[in-house]
Write a structure and sequence with these properties.
The structure holds 2 protein chains of 2 kinds. Chain A is built from 6 helices and 10 strands; from the N terminus they run αααβββββαβββββαα. Chain A is of the alpha+beta class. Chain A folds into 2 domains: 38 residues, no CATH class; 158 residues, Aspartate Aminotransferase, domain 1 (Alpha-Beta Complex). In chain A, a hairpin with a 6-residue loop joins β8 and β9. The chains are: A alpha+beta, B alpha+beta. At the A-B interface, α1, α2, α3, α4 and β7 of A face α1, α2, β8, β9 and β10 of B. Chain A: It comes from Musa balbisiana.
Chain lengths: 256, 315
């Protein structure tokens, strides 16, 4: 498994689906581990009843059907697919509504979904997902990107409430790809994925949704900055190491 | 204990895992090896070997994948007589394990999987270009080597004659391929990168014209607690007049230098624009309100949403 995870870190993020498929066929007995630890671009499906898109993941799947957070029904229809309890469903509905506005404000487009379900011992797990297509044919409002996608998966484990506080553990993954293309500068593609964790003990005075939302917002901000400054910055640094910018060179060149 | 799982890309196969044939396993191993980033094939090889658990299949795959990888990344191998490096390219390939080095007029035998040069011998007369062609080639090579040495800290280059190498004198067309490669491996810093450019230089005698076509490719991989890769490429064209070997060499090198410098500048511009423009099409740093999202005020959302819709704000 360690070798498999190392491979996934080395192969180009654009090829991650092919790579995972290959690993699944070579290591069929590790499929559960691979599917839960490897991040793949998110897929979207249409809720046929409400005509709204929703995101697919392991947490809303049963057999080959997926539950829509909008209508709370499975597509393709399932006789008795598991549903969250009425209490959690209420939280789930509110979460989806609020997250839609959050998504709109930061992403100006895209699709989001939230799934909540019981864990053991009065805990629950919430999964917040966002899929944004930023290409100029998608929701890219400024038209810079030939191709661009941001997929975020946030899984929060919320512990039981004790003395007015609860423990929140967030695991976030962002998968990102962007491509610009034009005649004079050619094709420029940056893609990557990073995963981080964050844990807090918070007062439940403002409610679970508020706490989870703030953690996610903070995490997304950090990941965006990380991707931009650290990760992209490192690849930029590498390019300058391979071919130092002209200014430095010109100082050393003797006149021909 | 749920972990941050990714989207379920289709249910994982049938109830019983199908056993793959040896050939299928080898194909998969080959894919991983050939797609390893520059400088990482040995690490990928270790992983693949461990996952396959079958050395015979691994060796079958490696024998086919390593040459592809080495040629695609213009691998430079030190020649045993310390006369320099030989580049592994399709242009200099004489057969599966023998590669021609134009600068020292030698033929190197290599072991692709071990990535070493095992032997060199002087090239035969029929493997070498004519003196007329060699004059052009070596002068260009000297001029380019100077450029590459000054510009790329870890750069290597070679000039191959790929067509018309036996031309005795003026009146014939011929074609060179210039290969430039710079590689940086920093596995301890979780970072690797490669710059490679391939220039086709067509000397057209009748038109007294030299047509130049370039393909530049840059790759970088950073993988500390994540996996981020840059993949950038550019194709360009230019031309100059057919001159003496010395003047042609200078002209051509200037053209190469000009386009490569411009390309570096445009890469830099792309990075500079990233945070404020291109990235914004994916996710803004902050909402238009320039404040964090007001999670406490759930009532406000329905209100904000309605106002936003009515006023068409942000649409």
């Amino acid at each position: 498994m360690e070798a498999a995870m190392d491979l996934m870190r080395r192969i180009s993020p654009k090829e991650s689906e092919t790579a995972l498929s290959a690993l699944l066929s070579l290591l069929p007995h590790h499929s559960a581990d691979l599917l839960s630890q490897v991040d793949l671009p998110l897929q979207v499906c249409m809720d046929q009843q409400l005509m709204k898109e929703f995101i697919l993941c392991e947490y809303n799947r049963d057999a080959d059907s997926y539950r829509s957070p909008w209508s709370n029904k499975y597509f393709p229809p399932l006789e008795d697919g598991p549903l969250p309890s009425p209490q959690l469903r209420k939280l789930e509905i509110e979460a989806n509504e609020v997250f839609t506005v959050y998504r709109d404000q930061y992403y100006e487009g895209g699709v989001s979904s939230v799934y909540i379900w019981e864990d053991h011992n009065e805990s629950f797990i919430a999964c917040f997902l966002i899929k944004k297509d930023g290409s100029r044919t998608g929701h890219g409002r400024r038209g810079y990107l030939q191709e661009g996608s941001w997929d975020a998966v946030h899984v929060i484990e919320v512990g039981p409430e004790e003395e007015g506080t609860a423990h929140y553990r967030l695991t976030s993954t962002v998968m990102l790809s962007l491509t610009t293309e034009d005649k004079s500068s050619g094709t420029f593609n940056l893609s990557g994925s990073i995963r981080r964790q964050m844990s807090h003990d918070l007062s439940v005075a403002e409610g679970h949704l508020c706490n989870m939302g703030k953690m996610i917002e903070e995490m997304e901000g950090k990941l965006r900055n990380s991707l931009d400054q650290v990760y992209f910055g490192k690849t930029r640094e590498m390019v300058c190491t391979l071919r130092p910018p002209p200014d430095g060179i010109q100082l050393r060149l003797p006149e021909n | 204990m749920a972990d941050g799982g990714g989207g379920g890309g289709g249910g994982g196969g049938g109830d019983e895992p199908e056993e793959l044939s040896d050939k299928q396993k080898a194909e998969i191993a080959k894919w991983f090896l050939a797609n390893a980033p520059a400088g990482e094939i040995q690490y990928v090889a270790k992983d693949v070997r461990s996952i396959l658990g079958d050395d015979k299949i691994y060796e079958m795959a490696a024998a086919e994948a390593f040459p592809l990888h080495n040629k695609a990344h213009l691998l430079a191998l030190e020649m045993p007589d310390r006369s320099g490096d030989v580049l592994i390219t399709t242009y200099g390939e004489l057969d599966k394990i023998n590669y021609f080095d134009p600068r020292t007029a030698q033929v190197a035998t290599v072991d692709h999987v071990k990535q070493v040069c095992t032997n060199v011998r002087p090239a035969n007369d029929d493997e070498l270009p004519s003196p007329y062609i060699e004059d052009f080639r070596s002068t260009l090579d000297a001029e380019l080597s100077k450029y590459v040495g000054e510009t790329y800290p870890k750069g290597v280059c070679a000039v191959y004659c790929v067509s018309g190498k036996d031309a005795e004198g003026p009146g014939a067309d011929f074609e060179f391929v210039v290969v430039i490669s710079a590689v940086k491996h920093s596995p301890q810093n979780f970072c690797n990168g490669i710059w490679q450019s391939i220039w086709n230089i067509e000397f057209k005698d009748d038109l007294q014209f030299v047509e130049i076509k370039g393909k530049i490719q840059v790759g970088a991989h950073y993988f500390e607690e994540g996996n981020v890769q840059l993949d950038a490429k550019l194709e360009c064209k230019d031309s100059t007049i057919f001159q003496s070997p010395e003047d042609s060499a200078v002209s051509i090198t200037n053209i190469v230098r000009h386009h490569e410098t411009e390309y570096l500048a445009s890469l830099e511009a792309s990075y500079v624009n990233l945070p404020d423009t291109t990235f914004k099409d994916l996710r803004r740093k902050l909402p238009v309100t320039r404040t964090l999202f007001p999670w406490q005020n759930t009532m406000q959302f329905s209100l904000t949403r309605d106002i936003t819709k009515e006023m068409g704000i942000g649409k």
